[in-house]
Specification:
Elements lengths: L3 H8 L3 E3 L9 H13 L4 E3 L9 E6 L2 E9 L8 H9 L3 E7 L10 H13 L3 E3 L9 E4 L2 E4 L17 E9 L3 E12 L2 E4 L2 H14 L9 E5 L3
Parallel strand pairs: 1-2, 4-5, 5-6, 6-8
Antiparallel strand pairs: 3-4, 7-8, 9-10, 10-11, 10-12
């Protein structure tokens, strides 16, 4: 709905992924309309539910480039190797947003892992997944972080605690460092809030364990990105 853009603008959203298994539920005409509605308010759309177009968009500030690749693995699995290499050759940091994985499974699948590792081997710097509706585990591969699923942010799945929990990643990329802040959130009566206390700590500690930061304190992790 066009009025949705008012909320996205208020939140400061400047880009969204359309590489999702539901974004073409109303057909190509309404998918094109969605793109137009978003682009009219300068919100960049990335990806396509069938992986046919707009797989990658590059954002630049001064000398810093970040290329976002959005892909819906539920539709098909395109070979991203050359796309990733092309963006790296263009001196961009590469973040991949795959829509993938098994619903409600808090541990990633072997298929997710195989793809994630291959993308990192091709040059990807960060992988941030969606679709399972719950927070999945995270890991590090070749010093690159993989967050297999952020879980739900705002969704009408009120039937379990896990589906009413999500993860926001606050990050900064420089020429030699990737800094990520882990921000667990909850949904109650379809209103979003920041998790606090023991539950927040438990989620953060579980993620940090997979990333090899189990002995660190706080909710911020840093990765050296210098080759």
């Amino acid at each position: 709905p066009p009025q949705t853009t008012q909320s996205l603008q208020w939140l400061g959203v400047n880009a969204v992924s359309l590489a999702n298994n539901h974004t073409d539920n109303q057909g190509k005409t309404m998918l094109d309309n969605t793109r137009q509605v978003l682009n009219n308010v300068q919100i960049t759309t990335i990806g396509d539910p069938q992986n046919k177009t707009d797989l990658v968009k590059t954002f630049q500030k001064e000398n810093q480039k970040i290329s976002i690749i959005a892909v819906n693995i539920l539709a098909n699995t395109p070979d991203l190797t050359e796309t990733i290499k092309e963006q790296k050759n263009n001196n961009a940091d590469v973040i991949i947003f795959p829509h993938w994985g098994n619903e409600y499974q808090t541990t990633h699948s072997s298929g997710q892992e195989t793809l994630a590792h291959s993308w990192i081997e091709a040059g990807a710097d960060l992988i941030v997944g969606s679709h399972p509706h719950v927070i999945q585990d995270a890991e590090i591969y070749n010093n690159k972080p993989i967050f297999y699923s952020l879980g739900n942010f705002l969704f009408d799945q009120t039937f379990s605690t896990n589906t009413q929990r999500g993860l926001v990643l606050e990050g900064k990329i420089t020429s030699d460092k990737l800094t990520i802040k882990l921000v667990p959130v909850f949904s109650k009566h379809l209103r979003i809030g920041l998790l606090e206390g023991e539950e927040k700590t438990a989620i953060i500690n579980q993620l940090k364990k997979g990333l090899g930061f189990e002995n660190s304190e706080g909710d911020i992790i840093e990765f050296n990105t210098t080759p």
